[in-house]
User: Fold this.
Amino acid sequence: MWLPAQRAAGLSDFSLPVHVFPNPVVSPVPPQQSGRWTNFFKFLAVNPRIKYATPTWPDFGSWRAGFVVDEDTIPAVIVRPRFAEDVAALVSVLATNNVPFSVRVGGHDMFGRSQIHDAVTIDLREIAYVDIDHTGHTARLGGGILVAELIKELEKDNLVTPHGVIPGVGYVGWATYGGYGLLSTQYGLGVDQILDAQVVDCEGRIRRADKDMLKAIRGAGGLLGIIVEVTIKVYPLGQVSEASPSRTAAIRHYNNGYHQLKQDYLPSSLSLYQSVMNGPSGKALTVLFCWASSDMETGLLWLSKVQAFSPVAMCTVSPTTMAAFTLANEPLMPKSVHGTMLTANIHELTPEVVDVIGFHSSL
Assistant:
């Protein structure tokens, strides 16, 4: 299904309605006003509802900031479209004039691909609406919405959906490339929630994903284009029980207990995240406990089983909301990091793997 979008036949075709957007942001234009950049800046001039910033603009640094610090990659322009039609028009004029660009939302790409030096960054974070269909138990989301924004909006209607544990991550990128989170055992992965999508393709056309494209999006993310909207499943949920990290060095004891419990039975409402974190007293095993059910009595029973894995130095379990729980994780993560992150996927935490983790956690 094809939806109408602005095309690149000429600059006059790019004029978008602006009467509902007073006081547009005006940014200084950089020296790249020749060659392939000329038409692009003319396009921005006649479409003031699309905010943009160049390196000379005071807030350019905050717009450019991403999770991985990269002082050498400085885009020539950062644009912030507000609607899918804005994105379509941007892609069309950029492609027609051979101007390189990248797309970002949360900026957590660990390989620094969110931005390109001396190119245009299309920042989708202003396309962040949530439109809930209570009858169909679904929600339409803007492609630039962050996890924090999504869970806050859903909480207003006592709803929830699986999401990542880091509030500043872009939801669509998280979901389309798998999407593992604290509610995954209860409701499935992020990809399992996606029911519909709209994509801007390489020619600047807005396309509603058909069956084949939707299948590709569920796992291949934005490789087919810029995802400007998704429709997802949402679920009613009141309180959850959560525990902040408990300090213990007994990695082996914990994993032995978990392995035994897994062999017997683990309820889908229970999610456990273990990690080794640096704290004021040094490294410690931390366990994030989440019970996603209104049956708190059963949740406390399972908490006691988890606590029996190994001695617990501190446990702070209390009923909370999913939004408050996720937002509480924000202080645990740095705003930015140097370098990158490499991960390994394994089928099971065998005793040998646990010993390796224990060895490196003691270094």
Remarks:
- Residues 1-33, 244-248 have pLDDT under 50 and may be disordered.
- The CA atoms of residues 160 and 235 lie 5 Å apart.
- The chain has three domains: 2-123, 130-236, 240-361.
